[in-house]
Amino acid sequence: MAEAKRQAAERRGRKGERLAALYLRAKGYRILDRRVRTPMGEVDLIAKRSGVVAFVEVKHRKTLDLAADSVTQRSWQRIDRASEYWMARHPALATCGWRYDIVAIAPWQLPRHIRDAWRPGLA
Fold this sequence. Notes:
The chain is α+β, with helices and mostly antiparallel strands. It has one domain: Trna Endonuclease, Chain: A, domain 1, CATH 3.40.1350.10. It is about 40% helix and about 35% strand. It contains three helices and five strands. Strands 1-2-3-4-5 form a five-stranded mixed sheet. Strand 1 (about 30-40) and strand 2 (about 40-50) form a beta hairpin. The longest helix is centred in the N-terminal third of the chain and has 25 residues, at about 1-25. It is globular. It starts with a helix and ends in a 5-residue tail after the last strand. The mean pLDDT is about 95. InterPro entries: Restrct_endonuc-II-like (IPR011335), tRNA_endonuc-like_dom_sf (IPR011856), UPF0102_YraN-like (IPR003509). One of its GO terms (molecular function) is nucleic acid binding. Belongs to the UPF0102 family. Pfam families: UPF0102. This is UPF0102 protein HAD_09045.
């Protein structure tokens, strides 16, 4: 039973990430990478627009507010480490700025894109 719940959550997460990628593309972003796993952690989406690379955490919950509020400080720290690892391996993007975003997903609602949702060193 626990395995079935985990698999359902995984499917829901992948679906949310696909929807978030489509939404960001519609807003003019280019998706550079998806489901990035590094030794430091993982990042759901990496997107670029206007010389800025966005490391995007996608959250799917019952409401957009619950989704947006579900990213913890520990999650951001993991994403920060993974993003530094990823950027170090993509020197062509060294001149780009970068930030941390959230795309919140909830049933029957348009996604909510929260730009610059977190900054390292700020609680």
